[in-house]
Amino acid sequence: MLPELGHFSLILALCLCALLGTLPLLGAARGNTQFMGLARPLVAGVFVFIGLAYALLTYSFAVDDFSVTYVQQHSNSLLPLRYKLTAVWGGHEGSFLLWTFMLAGWMLTVALFSRTMPLAFVARVLGVLGLLSVGYLMFMLATSNPFDRLVPLPAADGVDLNSALQDFGFIVHPPTLYMGYVGFSVVFAFAMAALLSGRLDAAWARWCRPWANVAWAILTIGIALGSWWAYYELGWGGWWAWDPVENPPLITWLFGTALIHSLAVTEKRGIFKSWTVMLAILAFAGSLLGTFITRSGLLTSVHAFATDPERGIFILGILVLSIGGALLLFALRAPLLRGRFSFGLLSREMLLLVNNLILVVSAASVFLGTLFPMVYQAITDDLISIGPPYFNAIFVPLMALLVLALGVGPLSRWKKTSGNFLSRQLALAALASLILGVILPLLVTGAMSVGASITAALALWIVFSGLKDARNKMANKKSIAAGLRSLPMSYYGMQLAHLGVAVLLTGAALTTLYSQEKSVLLGVGESIDLGSYEFEFQGAKPITGPNFRGMEATIAVRRDGESLRDLYPERRVYLASGTPSTEMAIDAGFWRDLFVTLGEERGDGAWSMTIYVKPFVRWVWLGTLLMCFGGLLAAADKRYRRVRESRAEAAVTEPSAARSVDGIAGVRV
Amino acid sequence: MGRAGAFLPVALFLGLAIVMWRGLYLDSKELPSMLIDKPMPSFAKVTVDELPVDNAALPNEPFLLNVWGSYCLPCLVEHPTFMRLSESGTIPIVGVNYRDQRELALNWLEDNGNPYAFSILDESGRFGIDLGVYGAPETYLVDSEGVIRYRHVSVLDETVWREVFEPAIAELRAEEAQ
């Protein structure tokens, strides 16, 4: 009975979304405040019913209701409760329910925190999101209903959750990633609302910025969690594989990063209007493409666990209607988007344009590399694969260029900056980072390394130029404390996020350059040296878990004869599915990770295993954490909460389109 | 940006959508084996009963090569199908006991029945690597010359038997009768 109630809630939510996608938009176009006013209550209703459906599916998992097909396929009575509760997103149908639930959550947040915006604008934003929800809900009800029953008879027990997913990473990674993804739907809705209203001035950019920053920050952490999970669970020693399913979040993230910078220009200077709108569409397209790829079987990969062409057609339909529709609207409104380009060759605008171009080119090349094998197969019927060498060859130099521009950007001024001024400001930072960059690797490792020197120099360049900029900003304050207090939150956000880039860059490059690994066969009592560490195999013993059995080895790690700690890698076999899995043991540290993956027994109690020493690998995730906090700090800046003239704007329901043509009337510097 | 230029993104996107639509119908789910239409790798191993076997011991007619293990639950699901095929003498079945332990494999055959002419013992998984096995269960259709003709990954139940293997075997037998 309860699963049917869940199904019914989804149908009710669909009906409410259909109203939400029409009436408020109609109201905004006609100036009917009653219709516009419906948007917020309708959103509340949508949230309640999708939330109810979500809670009911979770309940079915909690009580082992194996009469529900989805539960039977993705759970098992032996599964620990924390995985039962999260197995909701262990498969296709439930993942989609989580996706729509996240969207409902974002809509509710917009409805609650949009008092500074005019009602017509809010009605349009929520209306566009309502239309998107209609697409998602119809997809779910038509092709992937999570509440379908297993007929005629319920199974005695469930198939079990894929053993690779039974991990903490699975609990946190998908929801965060989805939340970030769906956040870009909100940004997209803001852009659409601005296009629909025909008012593409600085106001929409100011309203949109905090949402874009939050979505970006959450997506950043979502991607980082996925990378961290892959690193410690899959046991191959890497943190990024350019997998076709890892790439769409990265594409979205790159577009999103370009967008949050371009929004700054649009808000402060009223230019880059069409560019900003296009980036909002592209970031959203990236997020939908991610769904399309994982859910349609378009590209086969380790993640693509649900494959079904019928679903692919449906998602492609949503893709064509939403993105095609958005691009068409964009083309029709193009005359409104023309802005005056009045800035010098050397100016903050220009540097941000460079930032945007590099990010968009990177995103486009990742996109091409991801999709090209499919396009190639569609045309020639032959299979090819594009691997990490392609991505690295393109991505690494582009990021190096981006970092160079990053150092100059914050110090430059709007409209025009003199080259003399910039070189005076940055000469010291450039010199210091160059010299230290060459010396540091030599001091630490005793050997020269071009790669390490470039890395160190680039990272220090970000740090030193950032410090110089902060000093400039505080130059005329009485004390450092007064100076620090005077800087706005968004400035701290920027500095923190840029510092995050430096940390991430260092981690990514140094772990690639200096990692060591060794595959060995060790008998009890034998040991092996790697780097400055000694690993001794002390034996293996059988273990039993709630839903698996396996073997656990004990490895003692020593450095210079001094005992550091013991590592306990495992090999498990899950009882319900019979799938083997390996649980690596990690000694995580700020400067380096040590880890061991257990292979198999080769008679006489000897085991094969692979041992890794990975310097600086934690910096990859530390950097992304800093970036995430930076984005959140920037979004928390109090100037976004000012109610400034929104009352007056609220009275204007439908400004004539002509008003903002070629206008930079909305510019606030 | 000119009036017409503004429509460029839509046009590009629609082109991409058409390619993606075509892409949906490409069959990427089938896992092609490198060994399709190639002879089975040569081997000289022992069976789970510790009798020596090599390529010469393979049947001189089309047969199924089934990769199984006592740890593998899906193998239990397809087991009744193999029992039926072996009892009715429809087609000979050779097993590959993949990454298992001999005692566990013997117990498993005792408990569930033994449909195999013999099972090649592959404790190390080396033979599986030569075959290109992803994991148990997997089933290969091999012709009388010892050439691999078809590969099926995962469970071979009655539906798969009826829809895939039965027609494929009939076709193979007709081809060999000529």
Task: Tell me what the structure shows.
- The complex is a heterodimer of chains A (669) and B (178).
- Chain A is of the alpha+beta class.
- Among the domains of chain A are: 1-161, no CATH class; 516-618, no CATH class.
- Chain A contains 22 helices and ten strands.
- In chain A, strands 2, 3, 4, 5, 6 and 7 form a six-stranded antiparallel sheet that branches. A four-stranded antiparallel sheet of chain A has the order 1-10-9-8, with helices on one face.
- Chain A is flat and about 80 Å long.
- Residues 300-307 and 644-669 of chain A have low confidence and may be disordered.
- By secondary structure, chain B is of the alpha/beta class.
- Chain B has a single domain (32-177), classed as Glutaredoxin.
- Helices cover 39% and strands 19% of the residues of chain B.
- Chain B contains five helices and seven strands.
- Chain B has helices spanning 8-24, 73-87, 102-112, 126-131, 158-177; strands at residues 44-46, 52-54, 63-68, 93-98, 119-122, 138-142, 148-153.
- Chain B has a five-stranded mixed sheet. A two-stranded antiparallel sheet of chain B has the order 1-2.
- The radius of gyration of chain B is 22 Å and the shape is elongated.
- Chain A binds chain B through residues 274, 278, 285, 292, 296-300, 307, 309, 312-313, 316, 319-320, 323-324, 327-328, 330-332, 334-335, 337-338, 374-375, 377-378, 573, 576-580, 600, 602, and chain B through 1, 3, 5-7, 9-10, 13-14, 17, 19-26, 28-29, 69, 71-75, 99, 124, 135-136.
